[in-house]
Amino acid sequence: MKKKIGVLISGGGSNLQALIDACAQAEFPAEIVTVISNKESALGLNRASNAGIPAHIINHKDYKTREAFDEAVHELLLHHNVEMVCLAGFMRLLTPGCVSKWKDKMINIHPSLLPAFPGVHVHEQVLAAGVRFSGCTVHFVCSEVDSGPIIIQAAVPVAPADTVETLAARVLEQEHRIYPLALRWLAEGRLAIKDKTVIVKNSKSVSGALVNPIH
Ligand code: GRF
Fold it and tell me: Residue 178 maps to which CATH number?
C-alpha cells in the first residue's frame, strides 16, 4: 500500500511538482492525496489540479490564532487520511502542538546546508556571508524553526558572480533531486532517528550523507 501524503505549499510549487512526478512512478511507495496552500495565489495549486490531486486553500488570515489555523490544516489532512506530510515551500510556522501531532512524519525542505542559514532570505544570507558552498536540506520538522534531524543534503558551489536568482536556481535543481528521495525513504520506513541523527536503513547506493553534485 502506498503511503498517503499531504503536501503544504505557499508558492510556485516546483518541489511539489518534483514530488508529483516521483509519485507518478508505479513503484514509488507514496501518493499525494491532498495539497493545501495558505495562499490563494499559489501557483502550486494549479500543479495539484493538473495532476488530479484535491487542492485546498486555507488562508491563515481567516483565522484569529496560529493554533486555529493549524487545527484547520490538521483536520483537513486527517480528512484525507494523510499519513505523512511534506512541507514544500510552506511559509508558515506551525505551532509546537501541531508539529507534535506529526512527529517523525512531517518533513521539510530548506534551501541551505542546515544548520547554516536557517530562516528566510536564505540566498541573500549565503551571498552576504561569502561562503563557497551552499545547498539544500531535507529534515524532519520539530518545533524549532529549520531544525530537526537531517535526512539528506546536497551541496552546490557558490560562484563569485552569483546573484540570488542564479544561486536559487542551482540549489532548486538539487532540491528537486533530494526531496523525492527523502520521501521515498520515509514512506518505505527506512529512516531511524537516533538522538539527532537519521540513519537510512538498507541504503544501497545512496546514503543520507552522500548526494553531492559537485564535479
Ligand atoms: C524552495 O527553495 C524551498 O526550499 C523554500 O522555498 C522554495 C519554494 O520553492 N522553502 P517551490 O515553491 O517549491 O518552487
Answer: 3.40.50.170
